[in-house]
């Protein structure tokens, strides 16, 4: 153990980690730019950062199930015991852009977590930050625009409230590898209708910065 974690974090003992799903360069700079960087590694899979005061690690640019699995595997390799995943999701039920949700029923169609429904052991009282919505059904699939008869059938039968690319793999991998995991999703769009709306894009980024600031402050306390 330790080779993966030493590559990304410069240590085989990785402290608590915040894992950022999707492209989050602006929130990352805004929230973590004031911390002293002890080590960093940027790669095509994801980027890892080790900070001090407080002891904290961050993985950013986790996009899709394969990258999500490799991120969790790297944390396990570094003996990391706790992680918080924060990503974006598409709403299927009319959430507002920027809302923070924590689903409790999750299914994966992403080639890694396709083994039935996941029901993570999470309570609202245990969360570091209280979401706008706790509960609900969530589906992770292979790609944003990927469509197939299987996906259509699953959406029709499961009726997910939200969809992303990473969460199911994050939950499954962290559970299998014994890493305590909290997770939050921020609504970025509503069934593609808001993808290119600059005002709503800014709202999701503002919400992400606000959420990450709250999580960071809890780690510092």
Topology:
Elements: H1 3-9, E1 17-21, H2 25-32, E2 36-42, E3 47-52, E4 56-62, H3 65-77, E5 82-91, E6 100-102, E7 105-109, E8 117-118, E9 133-134, E10 137-141, H4 149-158, E11 162-164, H5 167-177, E12 180-190, H6 198-220
Structural class estimated from helices and strands? alpha/beta
* Largest sheet, strands/sense/barrel: 12 strands, mixed
The CATH homologous superfamily is named Nucleoside phosphorylase domain
Strands, total number: 12
Q: Flag low-confidence runs.
A: none
- Net shape: globular
Which fold does the CATH topology refer to?
A: Rossmann fold
What do the pLDDT scores average to?
92
CATH class term: Alpha Beta
Distance between the termini: 30 Å
Give helix and strand order, one letter per element, not per position. HEHEEEHEEEEEEHEHEH
So how many helices?
6
What is the helix fraction of residues, given as a range? 25-40%
Q: In CATH terms, what is the architecture? A: 3-Layer(aba) Sandwich
Textual characterization of the structure:
With 221 residues, the chain is an alpha/beta fold. Helices cover 33% and strands 30% of the residues. The chain contains six helices and twelve strands. Helix 1 (3-9) packs across helix 3 (65-77), helix 2 runs parallel beside helix 6 and helix 3 packs parallel to helix 5. The protein starts with a helix and ends with a helix. The mean pLDDT is 92. InterPro entries: Nucleoside_phosphorylase_sf. This is Nucleoside phosphorylase domain-containing protein. GO terms for molecular function: catalytic activity. It comes from candidate division MSBL1 archaeon SCGC-AAA259A05.
């Amino acid at each position: 153990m330790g080779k993966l974690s030493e590559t990304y974090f410069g240590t085989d003992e990785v402290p608590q980690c915040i894992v950022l799903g999707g492209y989050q360069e602006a929130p990352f700079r805004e929230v973590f730019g004031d911390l002293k960087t002890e080590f960093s590694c940027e790669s095509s899979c994801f980027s890892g950062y080790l900070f001090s005061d407080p002891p904290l690690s961050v993985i950013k640019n986790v996009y899709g199930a394969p990258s999500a699995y490799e991120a969790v595997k790297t944390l396990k390799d570094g003996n990391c015991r706790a992680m918080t995943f924060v990503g974006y999701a598409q709403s299927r039920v009319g959430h507002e852009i920027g809302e923070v949700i924590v689903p409790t029923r999750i299914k994966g169609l992403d080639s890694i977590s396709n083994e039935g429904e996941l029901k993570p052991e999470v309570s609202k009282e245990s969360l570091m930050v209280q979401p706008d919505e706790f509960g609900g059904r969530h589906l992770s699939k292979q790609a944003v625009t990927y469509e197939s008869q299987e996906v259509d059938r699953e959406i029709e039968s499961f009726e997910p409230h939200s969809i992303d690319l990473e969460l199911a793999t994050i939950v499954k991998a962290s559970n299998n590898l014994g890493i305590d995991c909290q997770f939050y999703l921020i609504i970025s769009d509503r069934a593609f209708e808001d993808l290119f709306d600059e005002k709503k894009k800014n709202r999701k980024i503002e919400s992400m910065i606000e959420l990450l600031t709250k999580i960071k402050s809890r780690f510092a306390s």
